[in-house]
Design a protein that fits this description.
single chain; six-stranded mixed beta sheet; 8 helices; disordered N terminus; binds copper (II) ion
């Protein structure tokens, strides 16, 4: 999406600020030009202006405080060892976009946010396949991921409370990996152990705890394996009658991307310095910046919609907020007891490695952005739109 800024020029001595005050004119010139393109193609200009108006201060503050240090672990496949472990390697590539970014965004097939059906019967069979694969994380931005056969995030898994979940993990990657399910109460040294390339592991757990949970590779360095795309969400549906029925269920997995290059030519790789500094280039819902702005999620006026949100991190929280409404019911941390739910709150934090479930019922037709209200995240792509009713036109706020 071209609502993010062009990155600053490279420097061999110090990390340039993402936006400097003296560079603000150029920044807005670029944004204005790209916004004009978006008006024609997407008609969503207002949200981008709104994003830009809010993000510049945050970005400048963060750039000023950015740490440039960080240790580099041993070399391994998929890691960009050409990047020196110096302050210079934390140069931001946020907002990098080719000239045809808007067309690419329109052509992108979004990751399906719809919750799939849970399997019938007492056992839920889940087969996960790990794969080294080049994916796109933003229009025209390629990333050499350690991910899943379908990219990143991994498949949304939906089971019912009380089902036995049988996990089979096949490692189709080049190095050892593993899978850690936060929904499971198991001995991790057995179930979550490393799996050699070309081999599989099978283990089971009883899904006694309802909620929405992260799953991820737990092989060291975990920071790198998660940041490279090895994560996903599992929904454990509470017993019937516990939650009010909803018309739509959507699953969102928030995450950060730390890039060794802008990814517009060769695929970018993981940058450990940025990951240690917690300064991502991109942040996404379901792995691709702004995909639900271009391809909104939908609801009818008056329908109750449930968002099952996981923050895969690896390191930053998601402050979940829907512009233009309140969260009618929130189940913070994915604790699914209605007696402890919150009602009519504006923003709820989903911690890295955690989940949250949010019900909204919106009566008025319109375009309602959902965001992490830590607004640098929006600038870096963590934004989507819930389209309520058959509305057209531009976003307003
Ligand atoms: Cu891994």
């Amino acid at each position: 999406m071209s609502y993010m800024s062009a990155s600053s020029p490279a420097s061999s001595t110090a990390p340039p600020p993402r936006f400097s005050r003296s560079g603000a004119g150029g920044f807005y010139a670029v944004v204005s030009m790209l916004l004009g393109l978006l008006v024609a193609v997407l008609g969503f200009v207002a949200i981008f202006m709104w994003i830009d108006a809010h993000d510049a201060k945050n970005a400048a503050n963060r750039a000023a405080s950015r740490a440039g240090s960080g240790s580099m672990p041993a070399s391994m496949p998929g890691m960009d060892m050409s990047a020196p472990a110096t302050a210079g390697s934390t140069q931001s590539f946020a907002g990098a976009a080719p000239a045809n970014a808007a067309a690419l965004a329109a052509a992108h097939k979004p990751y399906s946010a719809a919750l799939p059906a849970a399997p019938a019967g007492p056992v839920a069979d889940v087969h996960l396949v790990l794969k080294d694969v080049t994916i796109q994380i933003a229009p025209g931005v390629k990333y050499a991921a350690w991910a899943w056969a379908g990219g990143a995030p991994g498949p949304v898994i939906h089971v019912r409370q009380g089902q036995l979940v049988k996990i089979t993990l096949t490692n189709g990657g080049a190095i050892p990996h593993s899978v850690d399910f936060h929904a499971a109460r198991v001995a991790p040294n057995k179930a979550f152990r490393d799996v050699a390339p070309g081999t599989s592991i099978t283990w089971t757990f009883r899904a006694n705890d309802p909620g929405v949970f992260m799953y991820h590779c737990g092989t060291k360095p975990v920071l790198m394996h998660i940041a490279n795309g090895m994560y996903g969400a599992i929904v454990v549906e509470p017993k019937p009658g516990v939650l009010p029925p909803v018309a739509k269920n959507y699953v969102l997995v928030a995450s950060e991307w730390y890039l060794s290059s802008n990814g517009l030519g060769q695929p970018a790789q993981f940058n450990m310095d940025k990951a240690h500094a917690r300064t991502p280039d991109w942040m996404t819902f379901n792995g691709y910046a702004g995909q639900y702005v271009t391809h909104p999620l939908t609801a009818k006026p008056g329908e109750r919609v449930r968002f099952w949100v996981v923050d895969a991190g690896p390191s930053l929280d998601t402050d979940f907020h829907i512009v233009g409404t309140l969260l009618n019911t929130a189940y913070p941390f994915g604790a699914m007891d209605p007696a402890s739910a919150l009602h009519n709150v504006q923003t709820v934090t989903v911690p890295a490695g955690g989940g949250g479930v949010f019900d909204v019922k919106i009566d008025k037709p319109g375009l309602y952005p959902f965001v992490s209200h830590a607004f640098a995240a929006v600038d870096e792509g963590q934004v989507g739109v819930l389209k309520v009713g058959n509305v057209k036109g531009t976003m307003s706020h």
